[in-house]
Amino acid sequence: MTRDRALTDAARQLGHDFDGEIKSGGNYLPLVRDGHTIYLSGQVPRVGGTVVVTGRVGADVDLAGAQLGAKICVMRALVLLQRSLGSLDAVRQVLRMNVFVQCSETFTQHSEVADAASDLLVQILGPHGAHARTSVGVLALPKNASVELDLTVSVQA
After folding, report:
1. How far is CA 153 from CA 67, 107, 116, 149, in A?
2. How far is residue 1's CA from residue 65's CA, in Å, rounded to a whole number?
3. Gap between the Cα atoms of 33 and 27, Å rounded
4. What is the pLDDT of residue 63?
5. How far apart are CA 93 and CA 2, in angstroms?
6. Whole-number Å distance between alpha carbons of 87 and 104
7. What is the C-alpha to C-alpha distance for residues 31 and 51, in angstroms, rounded to an integer?
8. Nearest-CA neighbor of 151 among 75, 90, 87?
9. Would you call 75 helix, strand, or coil by DSSP?
10. What is the pLDDT of residue 23?
11. Domain residues of the chain, as ranges?
């Protein structure tokens, strides 16, 4: 199965459509390429114009909800990559992912939230989706999103 087909299948499994515009929330670029490296701006779990997972994880949102949010963030990032590159087959390696979780003071499962995103990257990109990662808890995120993540990716010429 191609990576592009795996992306389509993953979207279907999540029950969301990522065919429309992937909106940015301000005066910045969604991705920047420097040679073989692409830096993707932070993605929140927005589908269309709606952030679908909001609130504090551990208070308003449970672990499963936060994991769904992380998967939606990954899907947005991969759709942006696919549109920029023409195909996800041009991805050599996901180098790094940073995951930010808006959470309660007592929530400590940041890594488990990030695992959902990591697993989806490997599901779609195979071993090229494996990456270095940081996951942290934060007080607030844009649009009250429960999760935000960014990626650094190595691509073919």
Report:
1. 22, 29, 18, 13
2. 28
3. 17
4. 98
5. 15
6. 38
7. 20
8. 75
9. helix
10. 81
11. 3-15+25-155
The DSSP line for 4-59 is HHHHHHHHHHHT----S----SSSS-SEEEETTEEEEEEE-SEETTEE-SBS-BTT
Residue 91: is it exposed, middle or buried by C-beta count within 10 angstroms (0-12/13-18/19+)? Answer: buried
The answer, yes or no, to whether residue 26 has pLDDT greater than 90, is no
* C-alpha dist (Å) from residue 157 to 59, 90, 104, 106: 45, 8, 43, 45
Percent of residues in the chain assigned helix, strand, coil, to nearest 5: 40, 30, 30
**Is-contact 133 96, C-beta < 8 A?**
yes
pLDDT tens digits for range 29-52: 999 999 999 999 999 999 999 999
Q: For the structural domain made of 3-15+25-155, what CATH number should be given? A: 3.30.1330.40
**Inter-CA distances, 17 with 12, 75, 117, 157, Å:** 7, 10, 17, 29
| Nearest of 50, 152, 51 to residue 102 by alpha carbon | 51
pLDDT given for residue 2 in this prediction:
95
